[in-house]
Amino acid sequence: MKEKLQQIKQAALAELQAPDCDTEALRVKYLGKKGELTAVLRGMGALTPEERPVVGQMANDVRAEIEAALAERVAAAKEQALIDRLAREKLDVTMPAKCDRVGHQHPLTRAQREMEEIFIGMGFEIAEGPEVEYDYYNFQALNIPENHPARDTQDTFYITDNILLRSQTSPVQVRVMEKQSPPIRVISPGRVYRSDALDATHSPLFHQMEGLVVDKGITMSDLKGTLETFARKMFGEKTEIRFRPHHFPFTEPSAEVDVSCFVCGGKGCRVCKGEGWIEILGAGMVHPFVLSNCGIDPEVYSGFAFGMGLERVTMTRYGIDDIRLFYENDERFLKQF
Ligand code: DAH
After folding, report:
1. Number of Cβ atoms within 10 Å of the Cβ of 297
2. Which of 43, 142, 302, 335 lies at a 20 to 30 A Cα distance from 225?
3. Global pTM exceeds 0.85
4. What percent of the chain has pLDDT over 90?
5. Tens digit of pLDDT for each residue in 149-208?
6. C-alpha 251 to ligand 1 mean position (Å)
7. 3-state helix, strand, coil in the chain (%, to 5)
8. What does DSSP say about strands 125-126 and 184-193: parallel, antiparallel, or unpaired?
9. What is the distance of C-alpha 93 from the center of its chain?
10. How far is the CA of 183 from the centre of ligand 1 (A)?
11. Does domain 107-334 match CATH 3.10.310.10?
């Protein structure tokens, strides 16, 4: 029986040496209720009274040794698990971070926001109107009746006889004046559509920003001062503006407005194509017919209006020479802004 106990001890300690031993299974195998040690103890009844305490003591010693070896093994396994985990989860704080690629605003959006800020600073509010518009607002109310030649210059996408994709942001003027009584000071940025073939300077979809001021005693000099302030904020303090007489059906008098080239300062260069000036917008004093079409008395009120192409302003501002770049989503282009 003593030998049996020694065998059990040797076997248990040997098995516990194995690096990947299952400690719980070994505990059950040797020390469990149906384990080998218990089996030996059950046989103690057959011993003489003198032998019993000796064997009993020995069995206790064997149990204690196996338990100690088990505990050591479990502790070692825990420690190894921790070491493995620390190695696995090692964090190198000196490694370069993975940067998220954060996008940014499209150059047209940026230019639009910048323009909005300038006009908001002068007390303007932003007004919006539908892109699918009635012929009445896009043309008739703006003093462009059917068969008027001005319709030819704005090749329009018609949806039905009297519904179209707006070809300009000017219809928003009419919608604002119908709803609001003077004083009115609004800008209206947005998409416009014309049935033009896409090339370096034309696109069937582009953007305009309309401006409208109506109040008592508004004159052409208010228009000039407003546009000059805008041009200097947008293109630089030294910018000059120039009015050239023109014709628009909805303004009288009307003008096309140029800014001095901010690259060459007016001497003539590649950006201004040798002109020294760059045309950026159309403007004028709101035609009395348009005021009365909108229920505003032209004997009491006067106003000015202007409309500019957002692409044109942005291309001028950043020296972009092809309008198609705005719509192609080519990151090599977009990333530059
Ligand atoms: N709507 C005109 C266009 O698309 C631009 C324009 C000219 C707007 C003069 C105006 C204006 O408000 O007064 O060509």
Report:
1. 10
2. 142
3. no
4. 59
5. 778 777 899 999 999 999 999 999 999 999 999 999 999 999 999 998 999 989 999 999
6. 8
7. 45, 20, 35
8. parallel
9. 30
10. 20
11. no
DSSP E strand boundaries for the chain: 125-126, 132-134, 163-165, 184-193, 205-215, 241-248, 251-260, 277-286, 302-309
| Tens digit of each residue's pLDDT (9 = 90 or more) over 43-68 | 888 888 888 888 888 888 888 888 88
Ligand 1 atom 2 nearest Cα: 307
CA 226 to CA 257: how far, in whole Å? 12
- Phi then psi for 241, rounded to 5 degrees? -120, 155
Residues in the ligand 1 pocket, defined by CB under 6 Å: 168, 170, 210, 248, 251, 282-284, 305-307
Q: Are 307 and 209 in contact, with CB atoms under 8 Å apart?
A: yes
Give residue limits of the domains in the chain: 2-88, 107-334
| Residue the block writes with tokens 């106003």 | 303
Q: Is 112 helix (H, G, I), strand (E, B) or coil?
A: helix
Q: How far is CA 2 from CA 49, 221, 249, in A?
A: 15, 120, 121
Whether the Cβ atoms of residue 291 and residue 284 lie closer than 8 Å to each other: no
Residue 243 DSSP SS3: strand
What is the b/e burial string over 83-113, where b = at least 16 CB atoms within 10 angstroms of the residue's CB? Answer: eeeeeeeeeeeeeeeeeeeeeeeebbeebbe
